From TrEMBL:
Residues 1-25 are annotated as: Disordered. The keyword Signal does not apply. GO terms for biological process: methylation. It comes from the Eukaryota. PANTHER family: S-ADENOSYL-L-METHIONINE:CARBOXYL METHYLTRANSFERASE FAMILY PROTEIN (PTHR31009). It comes from Acer yangbiense. Keywords: Magnesium, Metal-binding, Methyltransferase, Transferase. GO terms for molecular function: metal ion binding; methyltransferase activity. InterPro entries: MeTrfase_7, MeTrfase_capping, SAM-dependent_MTases_sf. This is S-adenosylmethionine-dependent methyltransferase. SUPFAM superfamilies: S-adenosyl-L-methionine-dependent methyltransferases. Pfam families: Methyltransf_7.
Amino acid sequence: MATPKFDSVSTNGEDKKPDLVRVNGGDGNLSYNKNSFYQRLSLNVVREKMVDAITRELDVKKLSSTSNTIRLADMGCAVGPNTVITMQDIMQVIKNKYQSECPDSKIPEFQIFFNDKSSNDFNTLFSCIPEDRQYFAAAVPGSFHNRLFPEAFLHFVHSAYALHWLSGMPEEMQDENSPAFNRGRVHYSSAPEEVENAYASQFDKDLDNFLNARAQEIVSGGMVVLIVPGIPDGMPCSHLTNSIMYELMGDVFMDLAKEELISEAQVDSFNLPIYSPCPAQIGQLVEKNGHFMVETIELTDPTSCYKGEIDIKMWTKHVRAAMDGMFLKYFEIGIVDEMFDRLVQRLFEVSDLVNSTYKDKTLMLVVLMRK
């Protein structure tokens, strides 16, 4: 079985990185539409804090003085009801604030833009939008690491469970002679320091590109709300619940290689483009970028609304709904099916460890204001 190669594609003189991440579209058993319940619970955890930040910091009088339309964008919206529910909630909070502060003024119109990669299933996404919506809706395909909107166009940007996906894997990780070559693993958890540093460096570049693009698109006084899977300052990545899963994925793939169902070279060349930043790292990156003021950076328990032990089968199914497209670029579907079947068994074997870690504060809320 040949190992797929990703080559850069040049469009209009710009180097484009491969589309590494695409959630499962449609409405099937493994679709993201039906398997994003955990993400929705996490969004509910930070909803009150996000509403409070909008109520305290967003100057609706200033924003509406230059336009009769308030424009919002959800970047990395994926598929399903989560993005629709969240953006409608945000719109309503802004609308209520405007009615409270400007009772004698006409309420501005609202426009919501749903952004994700061009491979995203926007048809399924738009089937979730109610017909009686009180806003104009549009899809904007493209990478949020690049410019997507005209200058000083947006008033509010939201992004949830998206920025932890890297735009691509660092070049040094694809060099067998590099200390950052991640042999026998699929993630930087429990990997040599050079591997983790390569991931961190790529995340730094990606976030800087994201902030630079948004700085041109957002009006002065506009707000950015980011919800990112994170990690407490100083905690080793290997202590994260997700990292337990990623390490077991690597172990299962290596078992499949020993059974000659795949090659070790395939395992060595495959790395999950997922990085969990800590609050200090985000703060330093925002300060260095210089275009935004930090209003909030805090971690919370993403499962505080979830009672009982984690449902390992459901959790794994959610992960597959988000990652299937990436795995299938490297491995045949039978291998992916087998890997996930074995992964569930391995996770049950360490269920005590999984349940002792998943309540950690690993959901990061970041609120930024455009200077």
